[in-house]
Amino acid sequence: MLLRGRPRALGAAALLLLLLIGFFLFGGDPDCELGSEREARRGGGDPGSIPGSPTPRVPPDGRPRSRGTAAFDVDPPADPGGHNSSDCLPPPPPPPKCELLQVAIVCAGHNSSRDVITLVKSLLFYRKNPLHLHLVTDAVARNILETLFHTWMVPAVQISFYDADELKPQVSWIPNKHYSGLYGLMKLVLPSALPPDLARVIVLDTDVTFASNIAELWALFAHFSDKQAIGLVENQSDWYLGNLWKNHRPWPALGRGFNTGVILLRLDRLRQAGWEQMWKLTAKRELLTLPATSLADQDIFNAIIKEHPWLVQPLPCMWNVQLSDHTLAERCYSEASDLKVIHWNSPKKLHVKNKHVESFRNLYLTFLEYNGNLLRRELFGCPCPPPPGAEQLQQALAQLEEQDACLEFRQQQLAVHRVHITFLPHKPPPPQPHDVTLVAQLSMERLQMLEALCRHWPGPMSLALYLTDAEAQQFLRFVETSAVLSARQDVAYHVVYREGSLYPINQLRNVALAQALTPYVFLSDIDFLPAYSLYSYLRASIEQLELGGKRKAALVVPAFETLHYRFSFPSSKAELLTLLDAGSLYTFRYHEWPQGHAPTDYARWREAQAPYRVQWAADYEPYVVVPRDCPRYDPRFVGFGWNKVAHIIELDAQEYELLVLPEAFTIHLPHAPSLDIIRFRSNPTYRDCVQALKDDFHQDLSRHYGAAALKYLTALQQPQGPV
Amino acid sequence: MLLRGRPRALGAAALLLLLLIGFFLFGGDPDCELGSEREARRGGGDPGSIPGSPTPRVPPDGRPRSRGTAAFDVDPPADPGGHNSSDCLPPPPPPPKCELLQVAIVCAGHNSSRDVITLVKSLLFYRKNPLHLHLVTDAVARNILETLFHTWMVPAVQISFYDADELKPQVSWIPNKHYSGLYGLMKLVLPSALPPDLARVIVLDTDVTFASNIAELWALFAHFSDKQAIGLVENQSDWYLGNLWKNHRPWPALGRGFNTGVILLRLDRLRQAGWEQMWKLTAKRELLTLPATSLADQDIFNAIIKEHPWLVQPLPCMWNVQLSDHTLAERCYSEASDLKVIHWNSPKKLHVKNKHVESFRNLYLTFLEYNGNLLRRELFGCPCPPPPGAEQLQQALAQLEEQDACLEFRQQQLAVHRVHITFLPHKPPPPQPHDVTLVAQLSMERLQMLEALCRHWPGPMSLALYLTDAEAQQFLRFVETSAVLSARQDVAYHVVYREGSLYPINQLRNVALAQALTPYVFLSDIDFLPAYSLYSYLRASIEQLELGGKRKAALVVPAFETLHYRFSFPSSKAELLTLLDAGSLYTFRYHEWPQGHAPTDYARWREAQAPYRVQWAADYEPYVVVPRDCPRYDPRFVGFGWNKVAHIIELDAQEYELLVLPEAFTIHLPHAPSLDIIRFRSNPTYRDCVQALKDDFHQDLSRHYGAAALKYLTALQQPQGPV
Asked: What DSSP character marks residue B204?
């Protein structure tokens, strides 16, 4: 009895356990009911397909129209009570807490660089694991992204760059009609381009946005069978069904095929399987009958998968919700409780038509406008090497005293601003020996100066913009809607992201200065409009004066000001003098701060026919043209006060001649005082702090130049600080 | 053989299944290893405690110091191979896709209202379920939050308000020393205050921030045993251990006690258990020996739990990571792979000292600065009634034609801006029959006007600020650091959140106007400074002219302008006239747009000793004082142009007398032209669209006023639009 009873009891217990497992593993997750994975694994919607088949079934004709739209439709569960484990895998356990996840992205050019940053922001927002980003970039993107990540200082993120131009020959033989161009094909060469010891990687297009933790995606590697090497989400359009229009002849694919915007790659297995030969053979064979790829790498991936279906592990549809034109993605997202990754794979991108696009766009805008500084969050409990410089920064910040009245200044000086150089497409000027770049910095409230500046200065410019992430997007739209600005490719805009309460004026100037590509720079301010002729006059003067050889000089551009917003800009020095005499123009800050420009000697300038040398005097802050390798601005000066004065002292200390140009002029336009100037005027502590900066500066000056710096200290004794 | 073999095979299968279950259920989740729940369930760190006991064990002395800090420490697993199911429950399955989740929050006053919005933003960001928010508010918070949610229009969010003042008597007898005051105690009365059919609710403090989907928290209700009614996270400080300082005598609690910043409440069970009597009895009894509650409701909750330990279901520590002073939370968050809820439960809030506070602060700032408009995301596949007005809005937007050259204008007109009235603490002015509120609107770039305006206008103001969420925080800091601004309680700041590319000037004016609380309003612009005496002079004039009775009048305040940022403001009309004659001042827009103020008749004003009546003429746009119930501004005028002109026409059409005040004046300060004015000047399409708005306006005017509106149309025939 006992023996006979036990098997029954055990059998019942086992059944109960099976039911329990069924409930816990598959009953709880409504996403599990999504057709994508189940159907893809079934290999077709036809009832005769083999349930539980580990690889997609290849229908006999290779283009299984019978699957129709069912592939990622949500079928009413055929068997509502029980889910078969091969139909629907449970979400695998997340990777261990501090496991390093590997991500590869191909990125080229200015616009893609902006896109990839938004993608990375979404990634970082949800991630809980250390990440290693493998970026395959052209020179432009590398330049941008290297600066950005260096200044971003996100903990637990490693970056490696790979030269896309070196990889080009491997794919450039493939004719391709896709808008992504040659770079679109580069995902094919990742197994050989990435380090040989890298076994797994998630490959992402630049136009995807994460809405969840990438570790959940990484965890899906666990579902791979022994042979599977490529994880992909099925296409959410009918493209590969070949019925979109008459004579539409897509590349071969299994049914709807797969989308390569999000790929899980087992690099080790692909290498073992002879991937390089495999894809090249397939591509060459197909190109015998097809003129070119239409969807770049995706066509080739699909052709390979059609040939070697055992390679692919289908992924749940919500890991690549494709908002292409005529997308069928709604079948996925209206049932899923959770969208994981959104893919803007229409050439129209955010402007794609879709009744739900507004909601997806909101998610995208979230990260587009997200303050990237906030992603400098630690991963608690993960021992990762800090980003370069982070430890020194932490130490310096820790040494600040909370009671210091100038704490705000000290914090601002230590702030490491994220820098996005050449935020918009930019074409470097052709090398010319006497060319000059106008260098300036601004924030949103001076944006309206840009068009006028472009009209006045036809040459190259390097402008640093101090913006929030959201403002950077407003700025982008501003340029796009301005005919004047969008016509200019020689203006480089460098976004320096805001952090802290004081305007880091000299740090901004240094960013713009460092990015100037001509041998000379005109160090201007954004509220000045140069004479129309200044650009060509400066180049002629530089040539004439034989600057750049042994002669170390700063050319002074005399500064004037108007008090009227609308005035007719003088077209010549003669006209300017007439306006000056009529009281419509003044020499700059004539009323408030004459010593700032007094040494320029306006009286002499009136009569001057040739450049004349002037001597430095206290508080002199002219606008000058200097070689690009001139001294940098002193970044300790933040907020209002003394930022240019210190730079001119530095030039003088380094024995730059100060030469005033007789035909050059620039005119300041009126604007409301900045918040910093208001604080300077109204707040004695603020003024004390600026004074402390000046004192520090002079100490450093004496230390550096010794007795030669004495004259600056002496000048300082005569109390006449800015008011 | 067969029969004998089966039991063994079945036994082995069962064992395997058990192991499998063990692995899937408990092996995968590292958070599961956290001590919080396991330890709390054990009831103590002593090895002799009863593993798997369903309720916390009450140590004999009631204050189990032996538990020490172990309660939410991560112990090295005593039994590394297998986890006992009572030690560590798996995360329960999430609630069904569209299940409505219930949340209750107590909120009173201006500052708490700002806090609760940040909390709600974090909630909405991660949520996938419809939510019903039950807000227990005082009148101030209700006014703010009602307007906010009404204009926010978030899909799938229901709001119910409960009057905190009505509930006060139920808790006001309890002496309380906690900074949250009486409102801190109100969570105790939720079972009776919330609707009787509401069975479950998550109760949140206003100082918590979500870092995850609230549905995961809701799912923990599934862990409640039949009797448990309160889900809480253990305290992450030693407060209730009573050893923080000498003679520190906290309320009784189980060990470290529990924190009530996040509560899962089974309201149904509490009602059944006679909650009201229960907590009142306990509180009264404890208050016999203790002078007051120190931590408000939390003291009483803990005392009850100590008495009725079966009531509590301990929750995993990451659902309430407490950043109190001297927090021990690091033990929780350094091991968890995922923080769920952060609780700023120090009186220092974000300024609390903690080596990791920067990372937590970043998460908080994420939602503080998050563009709330982006939370207007649909929940795909959840059939929820749309927010009031949403359908009409959708229809109106759908009717716009993409090819319309003025599409931008039409979209801007339809934009529903989130409005946060009285963003900062505000004391309404005491009712006075002739009092006047200055009404104006501004955006960030005019912030620097506020201090000067406060000096010039000592009376009440109602200002609409057009800001992003991030700018609203900058504005807050700006006010906090300004002695002048923070001294004023009679200035009401209403934040209207930015949306769209055109400045919705008249919508802003209407918000400020609607919130003015005095019988009269001075409709000004932010770049004007009124005469120092204007406030008192206006009140006297209103009284003298017996306005408000039968006399329907608009008092004209003549407008002037200076072209210098810094000038000495005239202290009297005589001084003003001197400056005018000296050419230091001009009548407003004398050079660019004289017709805007010509009817004011400045020549007559020079000599006037008494108010004089003037007649409307085309393009007249004076600054006027009118009764608060005056016509609203026409919201169709967005961007630059004609926005005030239309309002004055409306006043004239409604037969307001236009009376110029002989001693009143206001002076415009210079500023750079706005982006909208620049677009108006440079963009012919923009001007055409403004013209189209004017035409529409006149059509409506004729429809409304018939023949009486003829004069406005006639005036329009003479072409002289603004330049």
From this structure: E
